[in-house]
């Protein structure tokens, strides 16, 4: 379920944090929103359980996860993960646009680029 890229330079706990957000937004945790246990994830990835616990603690701190003693960890608000992912994507786009403008790319060039990207909501509609 989770995948770790040891070459990307991003700490493992941060990769797990982001994976939970992405998978949660995609509905990978089912209707209950229950995440795999810390030990199960640690075993699956071959990492220290403390690393997984750190990611889960960050998710709980950010209000995306809540833990029930003896029951497990659950997504707090199913829509929260999708909203978080959307905000992060918009922040990355904004950074990329600012970088492009600082390199001399014009707003017209950016608008042309955006107009060439298909809208997934309109794809497949006659």
In words, what does this structure look like?
This protein has 126 residues and is mainly alpha-helical. The protein is built from 5 helices and 2 strands. The protein has a two-stranded antiparallel sheet. The two termini are 36 Å apart. The model has no long low-confidence stretch (mean pLDDT 88).
Determine the fraction of residues in helical runs and give it as a percent range.
40-55%
How many H/I helices?
5
What general outline do the C-alpha atoms trace?
elongated
Tell me how many strands there are: 2
Strand order across the biggest sheet?
A: 1-2
The quaternary organization reads as: single chain
Provide the structure class. mainly alpha
Indicate the proportion of strand residues. 5-15%
Gyration radius from CA atoms, angstroms: 18 Å
Largest sheet geometry:
2 strands, antiparallel
Euclidean distance between termini CA atoms: 36 Å
Topology:
Elements: H1 12-25, H2 38-45, H3 49-61, E1 65-68, E2 72-75, H4 78-102, H5 107-115
Antiparallel strand pairs: 1-2
How would you briefly describe this protein structure?
By secondary structure, this protein is mainly alpha-helical. It has helices at residues 12-25, 38-45, 49-61, 78-102, 107-115, and strands spanning 65-68, 72-75.
């Amino acid at each position: 379920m989770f995948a770790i890229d040891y070459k990307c330079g991003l700490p493992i706990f941060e990769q797990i944090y982001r994976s939970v957000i992405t998978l949660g937004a995609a509905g990978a945790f089912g209707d209950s929103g229950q995440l795999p246990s810390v030990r199960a994830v640690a075993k699956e990835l071959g990492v220290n359980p403390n690393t997984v616990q750190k990611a889960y603690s960050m998710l709980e701190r950010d209000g995306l996860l809540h833990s029930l003693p003896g029951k497990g960890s659950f997504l707090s608000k199913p829509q929260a993960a999708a909203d978080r992912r959307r905000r992060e994507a918009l922040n990355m786009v904004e950074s990329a646009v600012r970088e492009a403008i600082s390199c001399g790319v014009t707003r017209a060039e950016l608008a042309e680029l955006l107009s060439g990207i298909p809208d997934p909501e309109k794809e497949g509609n006659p």
